[in-house]
Amino acid sequence: MSRYQHMFARLNDANQGAFVPFVMLGDPDKQTSFEIIKTLVESGADALELGIPYSDPIADGPTIQKASIRALNNKITPADCFEVIKQIRAQFPDVPIGLLLYSNLVIKRGLTEFYQAASDAGVDSILIADVPLREAQRFIDVAKNTSIDQILLAPPNASDETLAEIGAKSAGYTYLLGRAGVTGAETAANIPADELIAKLTQYKVAPPLLGFGISKPEQVKEAIKAGAAGAISGSATVNIIAENLDDQKAMLEKLASFVTEMKAATQK
Amino acid sequence: MNHLNSKFGEYGGMYVPELLIPALDQLEQAFIDAQNDPSFIEEFNGLLKDYAGRPTSMTLTKNLVSNPNVKLYLKREDLLHGGAHKTNQVLGQAILTKRMGKTEVIAETGAGQHGVATALACALMGLKARIYMGAKDVERQAPNVFRMRLMGAEVIPVNAGSGTLKDAVNEAMRDWSATYDKAHYLLGTAAGPHPFPTIVREFHRMIGEETRAQIMEKEGRLPDAVVACVGGGSNAIGMFADFIDEPSVKLIGVEPAGKGIHTPDHGAAICTGSKGVLHGAYSYIMQDSDGQIEESYSVSAGLDYPAVGPQHAHLHDIGRAEYAAVTDEEALNAFQLLARKEGIIPALESSHALAHALNMADEADKETIIVVNLSGRGDKDLAHVYNILGEQK
Ligand SMILES: Cc1ncc(COP(=O)(O)O)c(C=O)c1O
């Protein structure tokens, strides 16, 4: 069983959904980034979604763009990111770790080489924000060969055809988009329609985690009530980092209480 | 499934968030339907003729070339309404916008030429335009910002990243991913995700078709070479498209070498040869060893873009087109030369193509006919060139 399967089984037994925070690796620097991620797990994060900073993040709103810029200004490279992941993996052998990044970082390094490096660092899944299903097959093939789950994304406007394809190809979990647009806490997620959740079940997609526009415990509760297997919160988490850059202690404390509250909302 | 081929060899594709796929599919379908609809063709051709001023003329230069073997012609896109070739394809996409039942248009612009073309088309067609422009470019191109606003477009400065064209494209794509229901993204060059490179080529291909007819009338034969500058690649692919299957016609694209292609300050994606994904397409791009996109540079804002349209990458790899690079200095010389010798002030972008053609003309040892696509006029560049030449003197 993969770490995701273990996690979903454990949560199922506990009658809970998953809470998965997202942060940018290397934001604002390597050491602080490690402390941040450690805090997230120790405060109750069920899994991690981690970004690799990129110069041109077209699926991200201002909050996550700025996180990328902070890290890039500190000369954080993909190699640095893998180092941070290795440290986290050494300390937390069971927490599922997902990467969320952009295609050019993978293509430049070479698909197999990149996925192998990720796998060696302890990564469980990879989601590429600018690789839609239509371009995904060669990434899925490499993922299979390197023991990585390729995460597919189900948008709210997905056709039946798309959902069927996701069902046939998804592994790990399915990233269920809460709304159109780019990442950001400014515009709230819509709670998925029963109809969509029913279709996801019908097409047997990997467990859906709802993301984009999740910043409050009530949203986590509602998402899980609507049938999502959990919720992902990116910009709200990153905002806490951005607002406390000059006081690391306060930053970690606020992150801890945020994660604790969000996790508490996953109890069914 | 795509109905049209989304790739050119290994290049192109649709590297965009899943959310945008339905919007791109809708656009592809609208384009296919339009191409098969005589009423679309009639409307498009009518606007091109009566509003934009097509066909544009073809001018044989009189004093520019001293080599008696050479005839150098200029395809006069500078005479098109709006001042550059950009107007052609914008009119086409504006009609598609209406046919898709959308009422808003999103566009990006660097120098402001595509923004101006978008603004004029939207004013004409009653569409609401919002145009993303890097904050640095908003400052550098103040007259074009005023033009766009005069014609009713909203100009939105983009502070993210480097505050130039690539960031404006990013922001336009972000906007579109939330607003595709009522807004069309009117991309300004033959780059970006499928179907843009194909649509933009087809809506500019009259440049090459007219060139063929005009040169046949004047010379009774095809030219030996057609030369065009390459930013994203729209004026070049418009000039090339009708000649791709004519092996006797050399296709030559000219990239901006800026301060030299061995310095970091250039925009010559093909000539420096690194492949990757930017703005939805796999092509030649400028990047560092990790795949982070690098800033481009050129004296001409319209060529200051760190990628190139995917069909050019393919034409390069199969050897059908050649790509050269011309420095700021060579382009500025050609700019002044054309003004002095022929009484035509070209855009700095087009001056790159001209500079390369002049080098070819010097070297020709047999009878040679060259056509340069004079993609735009230089009015927009006057203040910029004035400042540079003032500094030099
Ligand atoms: C006059 C002119 N020529 C050329 C270009 C470059 O674009 P493309 O390579 O798409 O023709 C521009 C872009 O702004 C332009 O204004």
TrEMBL record, chain A:
Assigned keywords, A-Z: Amino-acid biosynthesis, Aromatic amino acid biosynthesis, Lyase, Tryptophan biosynthesis
SUPFAM superfamilies: Ribulose-phoshate binding barrel
Catalytic activity annotation: (1S,2R)-1-C-(indol-3-yl)glycerol 3-phosphate + L-serine = D-glyceraldehyde 3-phosphate + L-tryptophan + H2O
Tree of life domain: Bacteria
Keyword Flavoprotein assigned: no
HAMAP family xref list: Trp_synth_alpha
EC number: 4.2.1.20
Subunit field text: Tetramer of two alpha and two beta chains.
Organism expressing this protein natively: Aliiglaciecola lipolytica E3
A family per Pfam: Trp_syntA
Active-site residues, record numbering mapped to chain: 49, 60
Family named by the database record: Belongs to the TrpA family.
Name this protein carries in UniProt: Tryptophan synthase alpha chain
GO cellular component: cytosol
Gene3D superfamilies: Aldolase class I (3.20.20.70)
Enzyme class: lyase
Gene Ontology MF: a single term: tryptophan synthase activity
InterPro entries named in the record: Aldolase_TIM, RibuloseP-bd_barrel, Trp_synthase_alpha_AS, Trp_synthase_suA
Function as written in the Swiss-Prot or TrEMBL entry: The alpha subunit is responsible for the aldol cleavage of indoleglycerol phosphate to indole and glyceraldehyde 3-phosphate.
Recorded metabolic or biological pathway in which this protein acts: Amino-acid biosynthesis; L-tryptophan biosynthesis; L-tryptophan from chorismate: step 5/5
UniProtKB/TrEMBL annotation, chain B:
SUBUNIT field: Tetramer of two alpha and two beta chains.
Record GO cellular component, one term: cytoplasm
Keywords: Amino-acid biosynthesis, Aromatic amino acid biosynthesis, Lyase, Pyridoxal phosphate, Tryptophan biosynthesis
Family: Belongs to the TrpB family.
Organism (species): Aliiglaciecola lipolytica E3
Pathways involved: Amino-acid biosynthesis; L-tryptophan biosynthesis; L-tryptophan from chorismate: step 5/5
Keyword Amino-acid biosynthesis part of the UniProt annotation: yes
Requisite cofactors: pyridoxal 5'-phosphate
Gene Ontology MF, one: tryptophan synthase activity
Domain of life: Bacteria
Function noted in UniProt: The beta subunit is responsible for the synthesis of L-tryptophan from indole and L-serine.
Catalysed conversion reaction: (1S,2R)-1-C-(indol-3-yl)glycerol 3-phosphate + L-serine = D-glyceraldehyde 3-phosphate + L-tryptophan + H2O
Stretch forming the signal peptide: none
Protein name in UniProt: Tryptophan synthase beta chain
List of residues that carry N6-(pyridoxal phosphate)lysine: 86
Family annotation (InterPro entries): Trp_synth_b_CS, Trp_synth_beta, Trp_synth_beta/beta-like, TrpB-like_PALP, TrpB-like_PALP_sf
Limits of the Tryptophan synthase beta chain-like PALP domain: 52-376
Record EC number: 4.2.1.20
Gene name, Swiss-Prot/TrEMBL: trpB
